[in-house]
Amino acid sequence: MVTITDVARHAGVAPSTVSYVLSGKRAISSTTRQRVLSSIRVLGYHPHAGARSLASNRSNVIALVLPLRSGMHLPVLMQFAIAVVTTARQYDHDVLLVTADEGPDGLRRVAASAMVDAIVLMDVELHDTRVPMLRELDRPSVLIGFPAEPDGLTCVDLDFFQAGAACVEHLASLGHRHVALLGAPPAVYERGTGFAQRTRAGFLDTADRLGLSGIAIACEEETDQVAASVHALLTRQPEVTGLVVHNEAAVGSIMAALAAHGRRVPDDISVVAICPDETAERTEPALSSVLIPAEEVGAQSVSLLMRKLEGELVPDASLLAPRLTVRASTAALPAGHAG
Amino acid sequence: MVTITDVARHAGVAPSTVSYVLSGKRAISSTTRQRVLSSIRVLGYHPHAGARSLASNRSNVIALVLPLRSGMHLPVLMQFAIAVVTTARQYDHDVLLVTADEGPDGLRRVAASAMVDAIVLMDVELHDTRVPMLRELDRPSVLIGFPAEPDGLTCVDLDFFQAGAACVEHLASLGHRHVALLGAPPAVYERGTGFAQRTRAGFLDTADRLGLSGIAIACEEETDQVAASVHALLTRQPEVTGLVVHNEAAVGSIMAALAAHGRRVPDDISVVAICPDETAERTEPALSSVLIPAEEVGAQSVSLLMRKLEGELVPDASLLAPRLTVRASTAALPAGHAG
DNA sequence: GATATCCGTCGAAGCGCTTCGACGTCGGCC
DNA sequence: GGCCGACGTCGAAGCGCTTCGACGGATATC
């Protein structure tokens, strides 16, 4: 193993000088710096991470904590994770992956052993058991999602309220007067998942505000149950011509169920989804959608975390504005339906 | 911060004794051990990971390296990752997530800086640029997937050849004589991805061996291109009654395209897929399928890695046997088709 | 009963790095 | 021309841990 002493000897300087070249914490003459850097290159020197963290009290590693329940969609989770890693690398940090099945103790462990300098919590729920632990730890942290009591915590998320609102506004602008939301499975609402509830609130409030009739119903993910839900909806509320779907897994089944009922999209009914672009584009017809900006959220949370590590103050809540992409699944209300 | 010296003082022993209690590397009397352990609990001691890695030359962290191209399916990747983390924790190790967009240098960095003791490479391709780097590093490693020259490397994967074979055997046992494989997108074959090619080989060889007519074609993921492929297949080979699908993303579109052609599943045509159970069960009708045992592969690779870290010798290749689950999408060949 | 053996514990060295204070040198300033 | 501050570099201490050799005491061996 090549050590800092080897580099120092090779360059004809003291070890501390090598350290200062690397950290930039003291001025070093350009000629010395060049000499040191070239020795580093020649010898293939890589500082020992453990030694560095012991001496400096900084590991340059952040923890990425996966959600408790994998109710959330795996692909979106992965997009988050990739964005977090990529962004962390831009700040010269690495990412330790922590699963939640260790529970809050996993958090304490990686923090107390000084493995990580800071923590990103993914997919935070309203009553998340990891949050109290986070509070008693002294490490900077960022949450993706909002808990019930976000005071003093830094949280990042898509603005789901605005996302729900944007969908309704889009449908309203096309002339639709009767809209429905097919949401997450009932269990997701029951356990108080913030993003599902906020989408529903945005949907209902906006329908109300714009004078539309709006109905929000939960929706399971299995094909047959989806079919039943769609059936119930179309039977009881046949006047609905605008559908908002906030359930990525059920998108396919919902489209199939609509077809089975003889409702053509977008001729008879317009559909707008809240889901990744990928999903929206793989459907026939391609869905107008509000995307979950996983990359953006991941990158943003790491940037905030780095600023906190620098001692900077950052805003408590960062809500990323929804962006609605219009595709083939929404159209103006046909004349016959005008209400 | 609580240090080993604090614990030693509290328990009335030497720091080295505390260390030996924790590591078990020397005999310690039961009374001393109890006293030390209770001090550890009372004080809330967590060993400093950096100090430990500096002194012992072991970080108790492994690297999990994501694939170069995310051509692979994100959810499966995430399942792998979760399984790897969970298993690593059982061996008292943590997991550092490394993305491949750093390239092979990322590998060198985490290895040379002693951040990680060992490396798991996910989704290895036939000509994977990370493999040569792995060879010049001295760290133990395990690959998920097989490169072109796997000599001396430890590789784990589903046995895709057998998976392809199992699908054909299943169809053959139901009386089907004309089978087709709808595989990965052409680009995947072109860049020499092992699992796609081995599935195709298993499919073709077995069809041949059992005297079936078998045709393998690549298949894009976009709905309209899938429809075109299915159309071409059914038009040119109308006698096909057994379909093997090895393209998770296209499953839905393929089913839709079959329906559009008036082919009922499984009455007119049987379909068996190679995909996660989740996908198979979310389709209508539920698909008979060979699953990609992500959890098993992830767990297995970590177990092997730990054995290598202990200096044990492990087999070069571990192929996990495919398990075919029969669901509603396959049925006996109708009498009319008997060939 | 003396010697060899093992068990349980201690003390000290050292892992590779950062950082602080010290020191020599130079230029600017009155 | 002497003083001061800034600059560039060095040396040493110390971060918290593991591990090796040493050592006293109990146990086994002849």
UniProtKB/TrEMBL annotation, chains A, B:
**Keywords annotated in UniProt:** DNA-binding, Transcription, Transcription regulation
Q: Name one GO molecular function term.
A: DNA binding
Is tRNA processing tagged as a keyword?
A: no
Matches recorded under Gene3D superfamilies = 3.40.50.2300, lambda repressor-like DNA-binding domains
Q: Which InterPro entries match?
A: HTH_LacI (IPR000843), LacI/GalR-like_sensor (IPR046335), Lambda_DNA-bd_dom_sf (IPR010982), Peripla_BP_I (IPR028082)
Is the Membrane keyword given for this protein?
A: no
Q: Which domain of life is it from?
A: Bacteria
Domain (HTH lacI-type): give its ranges: 2-56
Protein name (Swiss-Prot/TrEMBL): LacI family DNA-binding transcriptional regulator
Supply the source organism for this entry: Luedemannella flava
Q: Lineage from the top down?
A: Bacteria, Bacillati, Actinomycetota, Actinomycetes, Micromonosporales
